[in-house]
UniProtKB/TrEMBL annotation, chain A:
Keyword Magnesium in annotation: no
Tree of life domain: Bacteria
Keywords (A to Z) from UniProt: Lyase
Protein's name according to its UniProt entry: Altronate dehydratase
Keyword presence, Lyase: yes
Residues annotated as domain D-galactarate/Altronate dehydratase second: 10-138
Residue span(s) of domain D-galactarate/Altronate dehydratase C-terminal: 148-388
GO terms of molecular function: lyase activity
Originating species: Lysinibacillus telephonicus
UniProtKB/TrEMBL annotation, chain B:
Domain SAF span(s) in chain numbering: 11-86
InterPro entries listed in its UniProt record: SAF, SAF_UxaA/GarD, UxaA_altronate/galactarate_dh
Keyword match Transport: no
Keywords (A to Z) from UniProt: Lyase
Protein name: D-galactarate dehydratase
GO biological process, one term: D-galacturonate catabolic process
Lineage, opening ranks: Bacteria, Bacillati, Bacillota, Bacilli, Bacillales
One Pfam family hit: SAF
PANTHER family linked to this entry: ALTRONATE DEHYDRATASE, ALTRONATE/GALACTARATE DEHYDRATASE
Gene3D superfamilies linked to this entry: 2.30.130.110
Species: Lysinibacillus telephonicus
One function term, GO molecular function aspect: lyase activity
Length: 390, 97
């Protein structure tokens, strides 16, 4: 199918946002409910869930960040409706999460394992409610939507020395195009911008945003300094180093290419929804899954993910388009990879040509084409915890 | 001709775009200028080599920006990686608060 540039077929939601998928999410607010949630997805077609280890004995900003992540997952427009599944006695109460999501006009149900009298009845009740939501969801038709309604998350994982030369500049080209078309592009992984922060701060919209850039970088760098370790013991990773990256700064300068050349309009907290369009920086760690989860909870409907070493990364609710930095990994891991950016290294294609291929793929995927990570049901989820468990 | 890339004229390292054996007359391109260097070690695809001598403690520049510091004298044509380059950021082992 041919798409008019900057258009796709999406699902319009009650709050006006547009989804590219139509999932029913079984959302466990506590680790104790993740098994039952997974079992519901095995019983009911069209449902997705995720496994995690959080939701209890958390306090303060750490409680809030986890809470915001759960709510953001439910609010993501790729989700038609949600069954929030709790145990009953956890700090992250299912009914509180459900209330926040329902305020958007989305269909939400709540099930508590303790209230239902145990796991089996909770699964049965959750499955019954989910089945109803799935049938309702199936009646929603896709309609023509505009790229200005997209929030695209950008990410690099399993980077190598080609990342900064091929796939990241191509994603940077795409990011600039999305911004030109009135959409939103999220740059994240604060750790992997250490050493490149001045380049972003120099194109911040105003002094406040520039100041925030240095604040989040400083906070991230201090975490490693306070631990008394060289950050290179964990980032760049052994695979990055094998791929030719010698320091975090080198990795960062390559990673920053994903942000193209646009003005940096806003700097938001983890899992927060952008209030501005254009290029937005979300403060996340470099950890692939924690970053991915933050951006999806922040409302990203699609994620562009560049990789040199090859990673299977996917989200339960947002398609992740995998773009390789070199041809070798595209061929070796073809079952995981969507687009080859290695042609840039070989001189067969330009950054702009690969960028146009990615833009066209966004139209297709936004309209229903499945990515490799979706086909393999790679439902990754991980929250950036910022406090101890008590 | 073996392929490598030098990203800006400020850079003092090049990145190999294919596996390059140690050759005495490796052609490199810096901006509009062609130069020949003696590549002292084989360099793997994606890895770096010095295109000028770098003093111990000197900055290593790629993308026109600092990517680290030389932990020892690096001769033009030598392999540059974690054995002779250290990061300058996130160094809790050196700058504990």
């Amino acid at each position: 199918m041919q798409f008019e540039k900057g258009k796709f077929l999406g699902y319009r939601r009650a709050d006006g946002r547009v989804g590219v998928r139509n999932h029913v999410l079984i959302l466990p607010t506590i680790t104790c409910a993740t098994k039952a949630a997974r079992q519901i997805t095995e019983l009911v077609h069209g449902t997705v869930s995720f496994v995690h280890q959080h939701g209890c004995a958390q306090v303060g900003v750490d409680y809030e960040q986890t809470f915001r992540t759960y709510v953001g997952m439910g609010l993501n427009p790729n989700v038609y409706g949600v069954v929030v599944l709790g145990l009953g006695c956890e700090t992250h109460q299912a009914r509180n999460v459900a209330k926040e999501i329902a305020a958007s006009g989305k269909r939400v149900e709540v099930v508590s394992i303790q209230d239902e009298g145990g796991t089996l009845d909770a699964i049965a009740q959750g499955a019954k409610l989910a089945a109803r939501l799935v049938q309702e969801a199936s009646e929603v038709q896709r309609e023509w939507c505009d790229f200005s309604e997209l929030i695209i998350g950008t990410e690099c994982g399993g980077s190598d020395a080609c990342s900064g030369l091929s796939a990241n500049p191509a994603v940077g080209y795409v990011s600039d195009k999305i911004v030109e078309l009135g959409g939103t592009s999220i740059l994240a992984e604060t750790t992997e911008l250490i050493g490149a922060e001045h380049l972003l701060a120099n194109r911040a919209k105003n002094e406040h945003v520039a100041k925030r850039v240095y604040e989040v970088i400083d906070a991230m760098e201090k975490r490693s300094i306070n631990m008394g370790v060289d950050i290179r013991t964990g980032n760049p990773s052994p695979g990055n180093i094998k791929g030719g990256l010698s320091s975090l700064e080198e990795k960062s300068l390559g990673a920053a290419n994903k942000a193209g050349k646009s003005t940096l309009n806003e700097l938001i907290d983890y899992a927060e929804r952008p209030t501005e369009k254009g290029l937005v920086w979300m403060d996340t760690p470099g950890h692939d899954i924690e970053q991915l989860t933050g951006m999806v909870a922040g409302g990203a409907q699609i994620v562009l993910f560049t990789t040199g070493r090859g990673t299977p990364t996917g989200s339960p609710i947002a398609p992740v388009i995998k773009i390789t930095t070199n041809t070798g990994v595209f061929e070796r891991m073809s079952e995981n990879m969507d687009i080859n950016g290695g042609t840039i290294i070989e001189g067969k294609e330009t950054v702009e040509q690969v960028g146009e291929t990615i833009l066209n793929e966004i139209s297709k995927v936004a309209s229903g084409k499945l990515t490799k990570a979706e086909i393999l049901m790679q439902h990754d989820f991980g929250i950036w915890r910022i406090g101890p468990t008590f | 001709m073996y392929k490598s890339i030098i990203l800006t004229e400020k850079d003092n390292v090049a990145t190999a775009l294919e596996n390059i054996p140690s050759v005495e007359d490796l052609k490199i391109t810096i901006g509009d200028e062609q130069r020949v260097i003696n590549l002292l070690e084989p360099i793997q695809f994606g890895h770096k080599f010095a295109i000028q001598d770098i003093a111990e403690g000197g900055y290593i520049i790629k993308y026109g920006e600092v990517i680290g510091r030389a932990t020892k004298f690096i001769k033009c044509g030598e392999y540059v990686h974690v054995h002779n380059l250290e990061g300058t950021r996130g160094r809790g082992d050196k700058d504990a608060v």
